[in-house]
Amino acid sequence: MKKVAFHNLGCKVNSYELDGISQMFQNRGYEIVDFAQKADIYIVNTCTVTNIADHKSRQMLNRAKAANPNAIVVAVGCFVQNDPEAAVANDSIDIAVGNDHKTELVDIVEEYIAWEKGLPDRKTLGGRTISDLTAKCTYEDMTISRTSEHTRAYMKIQDGCNQFCSYCAIPLARGRVRSRGLESIISEAESLAQNGYGEVVITGIHLSSYGLNESYNEFAKTGNANTKLLSVIEEVSRVQGINRIRLGSLEPRLLTDEFVQRLSLVDKLCPHFHLSLQSGSDSVLKRMNRHYTTAEFLEKTDLLRSRFEHPAITTDIIVGFPGESEEEFEQTRRFLDEADLYECHIFKYSRRRGTAADRMEGQLPDAVKSARSAVLIEDSNRRKRDFARYYLGREVEVLTEDTEIYEGKSYTVGYTPEYVKAMLPVTKSGRITRILCFDKLCDTMLIGNPCETP
């Protein structure tokens, strides 16, 4: 029995896909081992969203080959798709597979083993391992019934992006929008529920485009609700055993009155919304080729707050975009305070080959990006603490996950529906427990005890 080790880099979609690949190998009789162990086959699901992601992808591939020079090292995913020449030229990589044919990965590996030296010529980009995703392609249906996560499972329902933001290489690496069928989604949700996963995270590369064949930008101009995505959420909520539903990153323009109103009726939906922003300066948003303004973004946060009690709204911010002036940066800082978001994920702008921003003038030095990033991270941490204080003295539900040591005592940790981390005396993992949050807050983490009543 050959041993296979896996390592994932990047987003929730990547995590889902690697779970699916791992399950396929396990179903074919392979032994799954930790990546730190010696294996016969190493599979790295790569990322290319930033230069750092590229570096980490190469680093993990090189580490795998160094751990066992005789092992077959497989590079899968976005790094391969976006820069196939670099992947094929890397001596640590034996097999390179882009963002399609992942469902065939076991067959590809076994053909390599059978042919001893692998596919015809590793220096050749032909064959079926790296396809042109700029052409029209279909959704590659992959399914899981278990996951590496303890209590929640990611469910990928959509792939690709048609947005072409000026900084982003993901449309080049993931191709055009394509969607998964509802029947397949519900079947997977039922399997996950049967295996004890009470919380699912519905995700995709551009989730808001689910079920839309036309450009999302054209659809958004109609002001209509994406009823196909709503149907997925509503149908998953009807699956027995699924107790919580979270959503991946959403386009702000998705949130119409009708869409939010119907969301508010899904009692299993967690009031935790990640709205893509990227900058709090309208001039920077325009250069980024984002299709909304800061005023429109605020309208959407107000809409969510009108339908949900104290929803957790999070976002991503890119600092140091080409030409970003000090005033534009301060606009972003002021806007984030005005929006009063629960959490901001801060990223330093990273040049990506093939994107419009890579060719823009006014590329900023890393020292400026780092300084601005540090300021926004500190601001975000302050707002996150303020958000968590709201729950002190209130009853909340926590889905318990792991055990941690705090001040010499063991606690079970988990998350509220708003994804606020909470800690309570040791109890069974994977159970939703109501706790009373005392007047204690460890940074942004709540500390409480189970309620006496159910």
Major sheet description: 5 strands, parallel
Number of domains: 4
How would you describe the shape?
Answer: globular
Low-confidence stretches: 122-128
Number of helices: 14
Main sheet: which strands, in order across?
A: 2-1-3-4-5
Multimer state: single chain
Helix content: 25-40%
CATH class of the largest domain: Alpha Beta
- Radius of gyration computed on alpha carbons: 22 Å
The third-level CATH topology of the largest domain is Transcription Regulator spoIIAA
Put the structure in a nutshell:
This protein is of the alpha/beta class. The chain contains 14 helices and 17 strands.
Commentary on this structure:
With 454 residues, the chain is of the alpha/beta class. The chain has helices at 12-27, 51-67, 78-82, 84-89, 105-114, 170-174, 182-194, 216-222, 227-237, 257-264, 282-287, 294-307, 326-339, 366-389; strands spanning 3-8, 31-33, 41-46, 72-77, 95-97, 152-159, 178-179, 199-204, 244-247, 272-274, 312-319, 343-348, 395-406, 409-415, 421-425, 432-442, 445-450. It contains 14 helices and 17 strands. Helix 13 runs parallel beside helix 14 (366-389). The radius of gyration is 22 Å and the shape is globular. It has four domains: 3-114, Methylthiotransferase, N-terminal domain (Rossmann fold, 3-Layer(aba) Sandwich), CATH 3.40.50.12160; 132-270, Transcription Regulator spoIIAA; 276-290 and 301-390, Transcription Regulator spoIIAA (2-Layer Sandwich), CATH 3.30.750.200; 395-450, OB fold (Dihydrolipoamide Acetyltransferase, E2P), CATH 2.40.50.
